């Protein structure tokens, strides 16, 4: 008996791995022309894990505080062995994670994979996506550089416009009336403790549901006889392919981190004026650009308030799509959903490009 | 009595007849001159009296009426002795009215009242009821004469004492501005302007020449003629006027040269209020060129360290003996350009070589040569360190700390430039060595960052290769595994 098999037998004897292997062995993944999209869930998971590992490593040296944050990142990047690599990978992986999660979300949307019985899986996924944006927003401030400072100021200002809850929300986020060292401490706490905790719960639930319910197959395959359906075992076939893609992503990440190291910029100066042409991160750009286009006053509503309400409403509808798209749940084709999804994608892409170029 | 005497008396008689005829109708003057009171006595010499302006012009009432009650009836506009701001307003009723002034044949400007209202003197007096200064404060009330008249209190030869009546009165000035000195007249008397003024030179600058006459603004008022950035222009209004300065036989290009100087550029172009204006070196009320041996003291009010080093250097004695103006010998006076390392050494453009050569003062020659070599090597090593840091930064390396250290290098260069003024080779070498050590540390960090850059690229290449090999192996494994599955 080889060493690997000996170790397996040792573990199996204690935790009954056989049951798990058997379960996974019986689990199949549908194979069809859209199978590629299944991998983005795994890629998102992989990038999240990288975030967790690099985040923990950064925590070993990062110091929160108005007078320490920037300097500690500077120290990480110049003095700590491979600190530059860890920080750069953390920043790049954060962006790729949001991109990958976005692709995963749209693929699920277009495949109508949210339909019964996967409503809860969709909800947990969407909540994680919103949290990913929150991770990005809170993490962006942590280096306490000029761009981060003003982006946070603008971002929290926008949050403050929400009717009724805006002002208290803004004060809560900023830990005061303005963006200060207290805001940094609050964002740090939210970024490294509050959100990871909630995210882990949601992720566990999401993964358990995916495993329990299996991969959703496209609607057009539902009526195909079981024998004619192409499928592959989840373990090890799909998992090995996942692993292959992860290695490619890791390579891309390493190249990005080395060739395009994440800049630190200048330390934030609360008394300086905001740099010209300040923009949020790319994933908020379409919303930021939209707010620019809405007139200051629309009927009796403030333009900015209207914009935020519309985005809020849009987000809520998106979140609740399994509940109002009854047709898909009944197994009927719903082209309207495809048009809505297409419109949203085009809107995000166009406005992001316009915002980037502007 | 000769013929000329006869003509003189005839003119006087004619004038008296004319005046008597005129003021025979001005009952105010008739009565008051009969009493012989001071106002009417003074008024005889007043420029207004000569322009046939009646007492009623300022006091109101009806000067044609013989009856005192009717003449001084308030219904007829009689106001008696004007008080407070009413004094200036009465003056302004004519002096701010171009038509009236023309009618009286005057070509005087009519903006005095506006000027006075905009001036620092127009602030409320301690009584809170009137301006601090009225027209009569400087021009008197009844004996007003042209400023050209030697008896005028605002004549160029008298104006300094007129101003000093208030400005030299410590008790009075304390009520308004306790921080304002009250020794301006005393200082002025020691100045070149004051000495000439005392000798009767009307062209020499007096208070009004620099501060203005009616629109006198506080020195911190940006519109003031003596506000730091306006002062060189004010001085140059006389000192750059070749025709005006002709008789004084001094150059008139100071302002032009000053504007090109490091001080002039800082003050006039960059509006750096800390930069010196004319008065910083020459004094203001006691304005005079600094003496040869006190130049370093004057420059030292700002360049303190340089001045101290120079004063304790062997050059101090040598310069004094040769009557060389201290700082000025190397740095010039009005057209002081930014000092560069080129001033040091023994090249043709260096200042040291003006007195030192291989035959004349050879020890200084060798020191100057050595010092230049040291400061050049410091500059070269700084450039080298800077270029390494810039290259590393351009390549995306984090060199924030090394960049911060570059400040130490710059500081060392500044220190070495200051230390030149000690003209002491060992002390100079010590400072330069400190700078060289700092540059070497920065250069080392820059080089390390560049090495790290290459290391990262190589590391990336290796790791990418390993990951690719693993990925390809995995791909092949999947293919083989799935083939076996079938």
Describe the overall structure.
The complex is a heterodimer of chains A (358) and B (486). Chain A has helices spanning 3-15, 17-26, 39-59, 69-78, 83-110, 119-141, 146-159, 166-174, 181-213, 234-259, 282-293, 303-319, 321-324, 326-329, 335-357, and strands at residues 28-30, 231-233, 297-298, 301-302. Chain A is mostly helical and 358 residues long. Chain A has 2 domains: 29-223 and 231-265, Up-down Bundle (Cytochrome Bc1 Complex, Chain C), CATH 1.20.810.10; 284-358, no CATH class. In chain A, the strands form 2 sheets. A two-stranded antiparallel sheet of chain A has the order 1-2. Chain A has a two-stranded antiparallel sheet with strand order 3-4. In chain A, strand 3 and strand 4 form a beta hairpin. In chain A, helix 5 packs antiparallel against helix 6 (119-141), helix 5 crosses helix 10 (234-259) and helix 7 runs antiparallel to helix 8. Chain A starts with a helix and ends with a helix. The mean pLDDT of chain A is 92. Chain B is mainly α and 486 residues long. Among the domains of chain B are: 148-287, no CATH class; 290-337, no CATH class; 342-456. In chain B, helix 18 (254-260) packs across helix 19 and helix 25 (362-394) packs antiparallel against helix 26 (400-419). The termini of chain B are far apart. Chains A and B meet through helix 4 and helix 10 of A and helix 27 of B.
């Amino acid at each position: 008996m080889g060493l690997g098999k000996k170790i397996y037998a040792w573990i199996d004897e204690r935790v009954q791995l056989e049951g798990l292997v058997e379960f996974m062995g019986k689990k199949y993944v549908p194979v069809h022309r859209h199978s590629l999209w299944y991998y983005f869930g795994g890629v998102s998971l992989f990038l999240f894990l990288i975030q967790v590992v690099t985040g923990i490593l950064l925590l070993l040296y990062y110091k929160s505080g108005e007078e320490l944050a920037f300097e500690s990142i500077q120290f990480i990047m110049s003095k700590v062995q491979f600190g530059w690599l860890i920080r750069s990978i953390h920043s790049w992986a954060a962006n790729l994670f949001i991109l990958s999660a976005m692709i995963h979300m749209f693929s699920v949307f277009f495949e109508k994979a949210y339909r019964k019985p996967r409503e809860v899986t969709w909800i947990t996924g969407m909540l994680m996506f919103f949290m990913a944006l929150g991770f990005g927003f809170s993490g962006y401030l942590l280096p306490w550089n000029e761009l981060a400072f003003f982006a946070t100021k603008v971002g929290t200002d926008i949050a403050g416009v929400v009717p009724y809850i805006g002002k208290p929300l803004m004060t809560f986020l900023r830990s005061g009336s303005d963006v200060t060292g207290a805001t940094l401490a609050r964002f740090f706490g939210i970024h490294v403790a509050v959100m990871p905790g909630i995210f882990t719960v949601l992720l566990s639930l999401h993964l358990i549901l995916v495993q329990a319910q299996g991969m959703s197959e496209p609607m057009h395959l539902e009526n195909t006889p079981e024998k004619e359906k192409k499928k592959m075992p989840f373990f090890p076939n799909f998992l090995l392919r996942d692993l292959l893609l992860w290695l490619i992503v890791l390579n891309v990440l390493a190249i990005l981190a080395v060739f395009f190291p994440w800049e630190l910029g200048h330390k934030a100066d609360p008394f300086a004026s905001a740099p010209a042409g300040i923009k949020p991160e790319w994933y908020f750009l379409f919303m930021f650009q939209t707010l620019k286009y809405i007139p200051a006053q629309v009927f009796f509503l403030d333009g900015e308030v209207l914009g935020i309400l519309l985005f809020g409403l849009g987000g809520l509808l998106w979140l609740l799509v399994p509940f109002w798209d009854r047709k898909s749940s009944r197994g009927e084709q719903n082209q309207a959903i495809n048009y809505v999804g297409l419109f949203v994608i085009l809107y995000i892409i166009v406005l992001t490009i316009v915002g980037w170029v502007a | 009595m000769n013929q000329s005497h006869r003509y003189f008396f005839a003119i006087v008689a004619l004038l008296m007849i004319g005046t008597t005829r005129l003021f025979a109708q001005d009952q105010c003057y008739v009565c008051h001159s009969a009493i012989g009171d001071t106002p009417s006595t003074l008024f005889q010499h007043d420029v207004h009296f000569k322009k046939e302006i009646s007492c009623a012009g300022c006091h109101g009432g009806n000067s044609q009426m013989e009856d005192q009650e009717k003449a001084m009836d308030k219904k007829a506009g009689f106001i008696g002795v004007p008080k407070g701001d009413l004094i200036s307003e009465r003056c302004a009723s004519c002096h701010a009215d171009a038509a009236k002034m023309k009618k009286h044949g005057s070509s005087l400007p009519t903006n005095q009242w506006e000027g006075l209202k905009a001036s620092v003197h127009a602030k409320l007096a301690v009584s809170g009821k009137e301006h601090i200064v009225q027209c009569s404060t400087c021009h008197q009330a009844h004996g007003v004469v042209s400023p050209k008249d030697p008896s005028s209190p605002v004549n160029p030869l008298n104006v300094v004492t007129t101003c000093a009546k208030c400005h030299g009165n410590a008790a009075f000035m304390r009520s308004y501005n306790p921080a304002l000195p009250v020794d301006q007249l005393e200082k002025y008397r020691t100045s070149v302007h004051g000495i000439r003024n005392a000798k009767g030179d009307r062209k020499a600058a007096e208070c009004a020449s620099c501060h203005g006459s009616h629109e006198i603004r506080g020195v911190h008022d940006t519109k003031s003629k003596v506000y730091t950035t306006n002062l060189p222009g004010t001085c140059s209004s006389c000192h750059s006027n070749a025709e005006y300065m002709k008789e004084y036989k001094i150059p008139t290009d100071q302002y032009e040269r000053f504007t090109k100087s490091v001080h002039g550029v800082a003050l006039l172009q960059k509006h750096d209020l800390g930069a010196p204006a004319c008065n910083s070196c020459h004094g203001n009320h006691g304005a005079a060129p600094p003496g040869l041996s006190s130049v370093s003291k004057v420059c030292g009010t700002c360049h303190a360290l340089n001045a101290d080093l120079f004063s304790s250097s062997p050059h101090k004695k040598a310069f004094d003996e040769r009557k060389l103006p201290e700082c000025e010998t190397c740095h010039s006076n009005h057209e002081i350009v930014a000092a560069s390392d080129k001033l040091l050494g023994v090249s043709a453009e260096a200042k040291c070589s003006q007195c030192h050569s291989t035959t004349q003062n050879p020890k200084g020659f060798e020191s100057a040569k050595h010092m230049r070599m040291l400061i050049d090597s410091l500059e070269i090593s700084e450039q080298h360190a800077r270029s390494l840091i810039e290259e590393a930064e351009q390549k995306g390396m984090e060199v924030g700390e090394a960049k911060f250290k570059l400040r130490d290098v710059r500081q060392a260069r500044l220190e070495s430039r200051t230390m030149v003024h000690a003209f002491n080779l060992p002390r100079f070498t010590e400072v330069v060595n400190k700078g060289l050590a700092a540059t070497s540390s920065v250069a080392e960090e820059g080089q390390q960052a560049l090495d790290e850059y290459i290391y990262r690229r190589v590391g990336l290449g290796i790791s990418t290769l390993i990951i690719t090999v693993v990925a390809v192996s995995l791909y092949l494994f999947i293919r083989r595994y799935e083939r076996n599955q079938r």
